[in-house]
Design a protein that fits this description.
The protein is built from 11 helices and 11 strands. With about 260 residues, the protein is of the alpha/beta class. It has 2 domains: about 80 residues, 60s Ribosomal Protein L30, Chain: A; about 160 residues, Alpha/beta knot (3-Layer(aba) Sandwich).
């Protein structure tokens, strides 16, 4: 049974100010909780008797058996399933890591999200990064919180394998070595994604759902790309959803590596 303080702690983490202050976040459902087990310290795991019987080796500082009614009261989901848990956010020293973070795109392909504000889009993009083996995703402060409940749910456990860094996007891009390509996706005055030369390392920048890549970040872009519609020049939708555009773009980068 959940204590009053435990229920209060679970509910509080629905708010960003509490997640930031405590360095904690919520994960819900067998898939997400299961994928995070062993990757991040778990402070509290509350689950139904059936779930605990099926998963006797769950690891957490505190394990609590709860009823479906208690789970509904603690959950931020419309249809909660079996288990809810509190995990510790990955810790990072921003000052110490600045040089390391700037060096990552010299050795691998990274994603950067410039003002992607929908939690579902951010979570789906993290899942896409996980699928295609991108291990680092950079977010501007204007992007949706990667540890918000809706975002975490949309990642489907990708947070276990993809490191997320919230950075001053322009400042971070300006720290990159001059030889690092910075690809940006645009709707016009750009090179066809399927014809442009692509590299196995660098940064792919995806912009805001409505406004695209911001002016300051655009000035850091060295390679402009667009995804052509088919047949080219025919009437079509104004643009693609940013998560779908990310999947198409990253898939083409990875295809070139085959």
């Amino acid at each position: 049974m959940l204590s009053h303080s435990q229920l209060k702690a679970l509910r509080a983490l629905a708010q960003k100010k509490h997640r930031d202050a405590e360095g904690l976040f919520l994960a819900e459902g067998p898939k997400v909780v299961g994928d995070l087990q062993g990757w991040m310290p778990c402070r509290l795991l509350a689950a139904t008797p059936d779930y605990l019987a099926r998963h006797p080796r769950v690891s957490a500082q505190t394990v609590v058996t709860i009823t479906p009614d208690e789970l509904s009261r603690a959950s931020s989901l419309r249809t909660p399933r079996d288990v809810i848990a509190i995990y510790e956010k990955p810790k990072a020293d921003a000052a110490a890591d600045a040089a390391h973070l700037a060096a990552l795109p010299e050795h691998e392909l990274c994603l950067a999200l410039d003002g992607v504000q929908d939690p579902g889009n951010v979570g789906t993009i993290l899942r896409i990064a996980d699928w295609f083996g991108l291990r680092h995703v950079f977010l501007s402060p204007e992007s949706a919180d990667p540890f918000a409940p809706k975002t975490v749910q949309a990642t489907m456990g990708a947070l276990a394998r993809v490191a997320v860094h919230t950075v001053d996007m322009t400042a971070w891009l300006q720290r990159l070595a001059p030889t690092v390509p910075v690809y940006g996706t645009f709707l016009r005055e750009s090179s066809d994604l399927y014809a442009a030369p692509l590299t196995a390392t660098g940064v792919i920048v995806m912009g805001n759902e409505g406004g695209g890549i911001s002016a300051d970040v655009e000035r850091c872009v060295t390679e402009r790309l667009f995804i052509p519609n088919f047949p080219q020049g025919s009437p079509t939708s104004e643009s693609l959803n940013v998560a779908i555009a990310t999947a198409i773009t990253v898939a083409e980068f990875r295809r070139r590596m085959q």
